[in-house]
Amino acid sequence: MTTPEPPAVSRIPSSTPPSSTAPTASPPVRLPREIRTERLLLRPWRPEDREPFAALNADPRVMEHFPATLSREESDALADRIEAAWERDGAGLYAVELLDPGPGGTPPSGTFTGFTGLLPMKPGFPGSAGWEIGWRLAPSCWRRGLATEAARAVRDAAAAAGLETLHSVTSESNAASQGVMRAIGLERWSSAVFRGVPRGHRLRRAVVYRSPSSIADAEGRRYRVRRAREEDLPEIVRLLLDDRLGADRETAWGRDPEADARYLRAFEDIDDDGRQHLAVLEEADASAPGLCAPVSPLPGPRAPRLAGTMQLTVTPGLSHQGAERVTVEAVRVDSALRGGGLGSAFVRWAVEDARSRGAQTVQLTSNASRTDAHRFYERLGFAKSHTGFKLQLGEG
Q1: 8-state DSSP, 275
Q2: Which of 38, 72, 232, 323 would you label with 340, given CA atoms 20 to 30 Å apart?
Q3: 238-252 burial, b for 16+ CB within 10 Å, e for fewer?
Q4: Measured on CA atoms in the order 229, 232, 234, 238, is the torsion positive or negative?
Q5: Contact 66, 134 (CB under 8 A)
Q6: Is 4 helix (H, G, I), strand (E, B) or coil?
Q7: Residue 36: what pLDDT?
Q8: How many separate helices (H) and strands (E) can be counted in the chain?
Q9: In whole angstroms, what is the distance from residue 207 CA to residue 193 CA?
Q10: What mean pLDDT is reported for the chain?
């Protein structure tokens, strides 16, 4: 891009966005044109919104995580694109009107206070074939939970419309927006960069949050795919042990404190690396109002029993004209659930996740003795295209 992509909650370019007539690859979704919450009205835009919207976009506090504030002309052009997106996509950014005045009646009821809604994810970001949820509210409405209330309403409307997965992108430094993302059930998934922002700039590095996905086995049982958490470690180690080769090289959690410490260090290294994704499978909560809603943890100190795990590594490369590739490894499905199509669905999910971020290749290695696994991967479309070599390094 010739101008920076603004690393903030809505990620709408600050000056030269894509054409409003450009087609989107995002899945079709149709949101209601008006949503009412306890304190807010999410509604279509009106001509009288233009002036307070321009004041919002000219406020350095609001635009702290954007490269620059907007002029009145740029703000009006942005409003034009927002309205056009509704006509094009059947979804977009709502104008947010305050129904409940703040302390002392400030601001008053009926005040335009910003926007929230959906917009297509841009190419080059993980999830680029999907939808992003965004928001931007006036400082007078900060620290009242209003951004969370607005975003949660959009999340629920999207789930009711059949949209399973949502994303949200912001700069690494935008802790407030990341807090809203977590509050509505999104999980940190990946790192990214805003290509139009110069290297070394404080706004160049971004984080991508997403809602947990779901997959189904051959009998239709639903499982949720989410990023692993530290409390999952005992279950992940159990899955690594629940394997013919793993039984000889892994140590049960809690048996050896030194082994536990090594597992924990490895998990922290993976979790801190935005290009590493340790995913786990758990049974989906059928009572949740849409898969975008967070799952309530089971009582007790241990995480619920996991059905599977895998690790994804995203590797940029100069070969193949700068192609990015994703490596799939350490794929494990609970032995009690094998043979029911869950492993196939899990690997297909990994392939689609790689496709959504623009990767050109998904690769994996499998121990030469795992002939059953080789046939499994070949049925899923993987080809034996390379010969792999490993050199085990000793401690000396």
Answers
A1: T
A2: 232
A3: bbbbbbeeeeeebee
A4: negative
A5: no
A6: coil
A7: 97
A8: 10, 14
A9: 8
A10: 86
DSSP state of 49: G
Name every residue whose Cβ is closer than 8 Å to that of residue 99 and which is 6 or more positions away in sequence.
36, 38, 39, 40, 41, 109, 110
Token readout for 281 is 């499978």
CB 168 within 8 A of CB 9: yes
Measure CA 311 to chain center.
Answer: 16
pLDDT of residue 292: 41
Where residue 143 falls (left for φ over 0; alpha for ψ -120 to 50; beta otherwise) is left
Q: Which two tokens stand for residue 87?
A: 């006509």
Residue 113: C-alpha distances to residues 52, 56, 145, 354, 370 (Å): 8, 8, 13, 37, 59
49's CB contacts (< 8 A; 6+ apart) are 79, 95, 112
**CA distances for 32 relative to 46, 160, 289, angstroms:** 17, 10, 17
Question: Residue 43 in contact with residue 51, Cβ under 8 Å?
Answer: no
Coil/strand/helix, residue 80:
helix
- Is the pTM for the entire model greater than 0.85? no
Segment 3-62, tens digit of pLDDT: 333 333 334 333 333 333 333 457 788 999 999 999 999 999 999 999 999 999 999 999
Full DSSP string of 103-126: GGG-SPTT-EEEEEEEEEPPTTST
Integer CA distances (angstroms), 288 to 133, 283, 293, in order? 19, 12, 6
Residue-wise DSSP of 166-181: EEEEEETT-HHHHHHH
H/E stretch holding 267: helix 257-272
Q: Taking the CA atoms of the chain, what radius of gyration do you get in angstroms?
A: 23
**Low-confidence spans in the chain with pLDDT less than 50:** 1-24, 286-303
C-beta separation of 141 from 98 below 8 A: yes
**In whole angstroms, what is the distance from residue 96 CA to residue 222 CA?**
35
Dig out the tokens for 337 from the structure: 């659930």
Tally the C-alpha atoms within 13 A of residue 286's C-alpha that lie toward its C-beta: 4
